[in-house]
């Protein structure tokens, strides 16, 4: 089984989670992405969030939430994405940047428009009582 290693930024406000839709895509994803050679989880998180959302993560506030795995969307069967999730405080104004076409706040009822791994993350957060 092939694995795709990704880092995700979890931001929840008023019971809704920050999600993004990339240009040319129809489903939403929790922001983040793949690490570059030699990057730590924190370095990947900081870089990806700045690239996609135009905000700056405060490194000392980065906190691990969990790691989740599912079949990768758009890939052949057996290719799984491993999503390591972190929350953090940030500064700046959220703005779609780079390949991101839209930023949207979603809740647990939006499972039909998100990726398979995000469904697991949404369910976990809903079970913890932080996602409506």
In CATH, the homologous superfamily goes by the name Nucleoside Triphosphate Pyrophosphohydrolase
How is the CATH topology named? Nucleoside Triphosphate Pyrophosphohydrolase
The domain tally reads 1
Distance between the termini: 34 Å
Strand order of the largest sheet: 4-1-7-6
CATH architecture: Alpha-Beta Complex
Q: Counting H and I runs of at least 4 residues, what is the number of helices?
A: 2
Q: Label the structural class.
A: alpha+beta
Strand content: 35-45%
Provide the helix percentage.
Answer: 10-25%
CATH classification, class level: Alpha Beta
The arrangement of helices and strands along the chain is: EEEEHEEEEEH
> What sort of overall outline do the alpha carbons produce when their principal axes are compared?
globular
Mean pLDDT: 96
